[in-house]
Design a protein that fits this description.
Blueprint: E1 32-33, H1 45-54, H2 67-77, E2 84-87, H3 90-101, E3 107-111, H4 117-124, E4 128-132, H5 141-147, E5 152-158, H6 170-179, E6 185-189, H7 203-208, E7 212-217, E8 230-233, H8 236-245, H9 253-264, H10 266-288, E9 301-302, H11 309-321, E10 324-325, E11 327-328, E12 338-341, H12 345-359
Parallel strand pairs: 1-10, 3-4, 3-5, 5-6, 6-7
Antiparallel strand pairs: 2-8, 7-8, 9-12, 11-12
Helix pairs in contact: 1-9, 2-9, 3-4, 5-6, 10-12
């Protein structure tokens, strides 16, 4: 619905709103949400306790420089605290980047099956989103480099990527960073970095270059999606610019406290990584044995391929009757796939069993 005289900025009404993963199912009693890549184990008990403790001081504005959390992140990730910026989810860091570096006439480049907030934030800033084709659901560095123009201001690559779960090598990422035109900033989205053993989201590349920034989140392995907190790390010139568009109290006190406790609880994070890897491997094997193959995933979800888009839609409907809510990928241009978050053991076994029945002919 549009108004005659009060009109949004050009392009705003062309944005396709973000479609969040469903949280309700049509059938079954117990709903298991496997549609938003949340951590089935929840946050560290220490993070939960810190969040609850923060409820004792709700009348006070949060700290605005986030120093304590930035120090904790610096300690755990071996980065420089003064070049960390915190946001209300990494979504907010993505928006800061678009608002700071891209405007009317500029292009924001991302790969074909890139996270849908990249085009949304680009368009909200007045810029034009541009997609580069992927190869077998993998980011294609040559295609990204070929799509660069003198108007390209930002290039977003999630590694591992959502919704494909695939990952490309550090050497490929470095080749991309070196090949970009001089006015373009490379954004490495590490929302799923913690799920990859020994991987720090290309922090070393951020360190060694002046055109690379990294975004990270507390919503995935840290189990704090509901608290809305993420962070970015980059060269001083980028972080200084982003801090000019950041609101002083953009992150709540409870989220800051929970995130700090979460990042410092390395044992719990490692336990979550190991559990995820175990059940991800198990589920992938189970599904490939019933002709639902998927690429190797490096994240906390797998993306099996169905015979066609109708089969994927029917499987989605069937899973819902069992209370299993997964993510249909038609909006990403992948209608023959479903994205299934790796839940706990019970959830993984339930998915495998339901899809086995489905492949044997069961229908919703
Ligand atoms: C690749 C990627 N980047 C960023 C985000 C945003 O996460 P948040 O805003 O919760 O930090 C997500 C969430 O699904 C994601 O998959």
């Amino acid at each position: 619905m549009s108004h005659k005289t009060i009109i949004p900025q050009p392009g705003i009404l062309n944005i396709s709103p973000y479609v969040a993963g469903k949280s309700v199912a049509k059938g079954g009693n117990r709903v298991t949400k496997l549609s938003s890549n949340e951590n089935p184990l929840g946050p560290s008990p220490m993070a939960r306790a810190a969040y609850i403790e923060a409820a004792g001081a709700l009348e006070t504005y949060p700290n605005s420089d986030h120093a304590s959390l930035r120090e904790a992140i610096a300690k755990v990730h071996g980065v420089a605290a003064e070049r960390v910026i915190c946001g209300a989810g990494s979504d907010e860091i993505i928006a800061f980047l678009c608002n700071t570096y891209a405007g009317t006439g500029d292009e924001v480049l991302y790969s074909q099956y890139g996270f849908s907030m990249y085009p949304i934030s680009a368009m909200a800033a007045g810029a034009t989103p541009v997609q580069a084709e992927e190869t077998n659901l993998h980011t294609d560095v040559d295609a990204l480099l070929a799509a660069c123009t003198e108007r390209t201001k930002l290039v977003f690559v999630a590694n591992p990527n959502n919704p494909t779960g695939t990952m490309i090598s550090e050497a490929e990422i470095a080749r991309l960073a070196s090949g970009l035109p001089p006015q373009a900033l490379l954004v490495l989205d590490g929302a799923y970095a913690e799920f990859v053993e020994g991987f720090n989201g290309h922090a070393a590349l951020v360190e060694s270059r002046d055109n690379v920034v990294m975004t990270r989140t507390f919503s995935k392995i840290y189990g704090l999606g509901g608290a809305r907190i993420g962070w970015g790390y980059g060269p001083a010139h980028v972080i200084e610019a982003l801090n000019r568009v950041r609101g002083p109290f953009n992150v709540s006190a409870a989220a800051l406290a929970a995130a700090e406790a979460a990042v410092l609880d390395g044992d719990y994070t490692e336990k979550c990584r190991v559990e995820n890897a175990k059940w991800r491997g198990w589920l992938r094997n189970e599904l490939s044995a019933i002709d639902l193959a998927s690429n190797k995933s490096f994240a906390n979800f797998i993306v099996p391929k169905f015979a066609n888009k109708q089969a994927a839609a029917e499987a989605d409907a069937y899973l819902q009757t069992k209370g299993l809510v997964v993510r249909a990928l038609g909006g990403y241009g992948l209608p023959e796939y479903l994205r299934i978050t790796i839940g706990d053991e019970i959830a993984c076994r339930a998915v495998a069993s339901a899809l086995t029945d489905f492949m044997k002919g069961a229908r919703a």
